Amino acid sequence: MESDLLQRVYLGNSLRSYLWALGLFVLLWAALKVFRAVVLLRLRRLAQVTETTLDDFLIRAVESAVMPVLNYGAFYVALNSLALSERLGKALHAVSSVYLVFYTVRLALAAIRHSLEQQLLRRPNGRERMGQLKGMMVVIGGALWVLGAVFVLGNLGYDITAVVTGLGIGGIAIALAAQNILGDLFNYFVIFFDRPFEVGDNIQIDDKRGVVEQIGIKTTRIRSVTGEELVISNTNLTSSRIHNFRRLEDRRATQLLGVTYGTPADKLRAIPELARRAVETQPKAAFERCHFRAYGPSSLDFELVYLVRDPDPACFFATQHGVNLALYEAFAREGIAFAFPTQTLHVHSAKD
Questions:
Q1: Total structural domains in the chain?
Q2: Residue 9 and residue 155 share a domain
Q3: What is the largest CA-CA distance in the chain?
Q4: Which helix (H) or strand (E) is 303 found in, with range?
Q5: Angle at CA 237, nearest 5°, toward 236 and 243?
Q6: Which of 65, 103, 125, 305 is the most exposed place for a label (fewest CB within 10 A)?
Q7: CATH number of the domain to which 272 belongs
Q8: Tens digit of pLDDT at every position of the chain (352 positions)
Q9: Neighbours of 13 (CB within 10 A)
């Protein structure tokens, strides 16, 4: 009697087949539970004591993307052990394709984001610049989801040639209509990977100078030295000559010192030494040279060159201020007069 009950057929399968499928699903599900509770837990503890972040990412990826796929795989294997109708088999195949592509794209996006985050963290002030990833991940995510959708359609038996052709024609039309936007988007990737400047850098483009506050998909925002916000397209930035002062190690100061004609020769010989001492009064200044350069229209011209060992503009101007004061005081002590533009007019009478 019991054997007859197990042999009864419902929807093309015997009751014994249903019990076998259920038992197979429970067995696989229990094995995955044990794997997650024992193996993954131990691996997570080991990953916490290592210095690298790769193992932590792999554990998270297995828990968030691989385990759901394996759980569904247990259901798929158990259900596929039954004799399914053609309609139900197609539905199961379609659901499986969507499920697999969904978690594959999620896993790929997580891996790409982790890689980009690690690249940013290796840069100075990387944590403060994580906002740059938002726009990039939107673009990458959109591309991957489109590819995933095309893969699902092809796997379901649709003619993806027409779909790909349509996407290609549509892409060309969009590119022609929005070539400026796409150009800015491409240059956003150039800025991210080539790193001509980063958030927080003090840069100058043509006659505009300021600190980079935000790098967006289309535009970059710069706080100018006068306080206003400059919004410049990424295309204009990458096609311009950019002066990045953050990467400046030394600043060179060049000054022209003009003294009056008639200054004694011994005083002229003393000027380079006076200039050197004036520069050395400043802790971050390094004397380079000072020499008699030329006979000017109204002055004897000396050229002074020194370095400021600090990229900060405020330090540069403060050092220049100190050197100028020291030079003025030294020249005053030695009786050396600075020249200023003068003209001498000689008048002769007609009789003379």
A1: 3
A2: yes
A3: 154
A4: strand 300-308
A5: 140
A6: 125
A7: 3.30.70.100
A8: 445 555 665 556 666 777 777 788 788 888 888 887 777 778 777 777 777 777 777 777 777 778 888 888 888 777 777 766 777 777 877 888 888 888 888 888 888 887 877 777 766 655 656 666 676 777 778 778 888 887 777 777 766 665 566 655 555 555 444 456 667 777 777 777 777 887 778 888 888 888 888 887 778 888 887 788 888 888 888 888 888 877 677 888 899 999 999 899 999 999 999 999 999 999 999 999 999 999 988 899 999 999 998 877 788 889 999 999 999 999 999 999 998 876 666 676 666 5
A9: 16
Helix (H) or strand (E) holding 132: helix 132-155
Distance in angstroms (rounded) separating the CA atoms of residues 226 and 211: 11
Let me know whether 32 and 150 are in one domain.
yes
Which strands make up the sheet holding 219-224, listed edge to edge? 229-233, 219-224, 208-215, 202-205, 242-244
Tokens representing 108 are 């790929």
Q: CA-CA distance, 128 to 125, in Å (whole number)? A: 6
| Residue (of 76, 94, 69) closest to 21 by Cα position | 76
Task: Tell how many helices (H) and how many strands (E) occur in the chain.
Answer: 12, 10
With respect to residue 349, please indicate whether it lies within any of the assigned structural domains.
Answer: no
Question: Is residue 255 domain-shared with residue 203, that is, in the same domain?
Answer: no
> Is 203 in the same domain as 324?
no
Residue carrying the six token digits 């969904």:
102
Strands, DSSP E only, in 172-250? Answer: 202-205, 208-215, 219-224, 229-233, 242-244
Question: What is the residue range of 126's domain?
Answer: 2-171
H or E, element range at 149: helix 132-155
